[in-house]
Specification:
It is built from three helices and four strands. It is an alpha+beta fold. The protein has one domain (8-117): YaeB-like fold, CATH 3.30.2310. Helix 1 (8-24) runs antiparallel to helix 3 (49-58).
Length: 123
Amino acid sequence: MYEKRPSNRELLKRITEAKISLRAQNGLFANPAKVLGELNELDVGDSSEIWELIKELLEEIAPKDYSGSRPPQKSYEKTIAGLELFAFSWWSKKLGKEMYIKFTLKSGRYCYVSLHQSRVKKR
């Protein structure tokens, strides 16, 4: 049976690319106004702290945690319009709760779309 995109291999590649991108440089915020509310919910005081946190959280996720659509949804945010979005939900050991992260990659840079406590319980 044919598995719809993204495959586990593609997901692993995207996670790896995200990690490499953040090691090389800070990411970009797709929608800075949305980020403020999410950072406040996570009790992250300074937006510069978020990149280190995301690096740690990316180490916790795996292809099995993918919770996005198949094929991946394309962004409608102006700065990343048309790029594929990769969403994951998982139990974070670091934060001690079920988390949700969504990102894309633009010209080799990590683009933060969303990061918050998961609003949907995994089955």
